[in-house]
Amino acid sequence: MELRDKAYNDYLDGMKYKEIAEKYGVSINTVKSWKQRHNWQRKKGAHKKKKGAPFRNTNSVGHASSVPKQNSNAVKHGLFAKYLPPETAKLVQAIEDTPPIDVLWENICIKYAAIIRAQKLMYVKDQADLTKVLKREKESSGKIKSWEKEYELQFAWDKQAAFLTAQSRAMGTLNNMIKQYEELCRSGQADEEQQLRIEKLKAEVDSIKNDAPDKDAVTFTFDRKSD
């Protein structure tokens, strides 16, 4: 039986993340990642350790509770439930068990998808590629009604320059996110699957940088010498 499966059985028995992590020598974030990616769910009626003072403990006798009745601090996400819209509060509850490395990974995927999509949206066919965009229009006064229209012309070189600037900025952000992910991997917060997926993504990103879009395109490679 794999380590993850053993941890899952302990989770079903009511063990906490910290207890499972200590038992199997992994981080709490790794346990949370297992739960998130493999959809661990406790069955109703599963044993849970009770909290509170030991049986027959008299330390609290004669002392009123320090927490007022109906205090929202005793309710999970009480602050969120009070000030955030219901939809937002539900999202907070849904992601609370997601480890930081998986949150970062999801953001990396979103950014990477946006870069891929931009390749199509901002594609410039050739030097004669011209885009005509209606900027504003107004109705002119007079006996005969007419409309005055003002257009903005986007030439090929302008669109290409805008694309290169946007792509450079987006790739810089993506590279920084990948570096953060690798730092989490080196700190022991990632399992084997989490490490392999970032290596696969890095290879795909390199292919975007190096592959020419068509046979007529020219790829320039710049080698920066270290000081």
UniProtKB/TrEMBL annotation:
Ranges of residues in domain RNA polymerase sigma factor 70 region 4 type: 11-37
Chain intervals for the UniProt region annotation (Disordered): 42-70
Q: Name one GO molecular function term.
A: DNA binding
List the biased-composition ranges (Polar residues): 56-70
Q: What InterPro entries has UniProt attached to this entry?
A: Homeodomain-like_sf, RNA_pol_sigma70_r4_t2
Q: Which GO terms describe its biological process?
A: DNA-templated transcription initiation
User: Which N-terminal stretch is annotated as signal sequence?
Assistant: none
Supply the Pfam families for this chain. Answer: Sigma70_r4_2
- Biased segments, Basic residues type: 42-53
- What is this protein called in UniProt? Uncharacterized protein YjcR
> Origin organism of this chain?
Megasphaera paucivorans
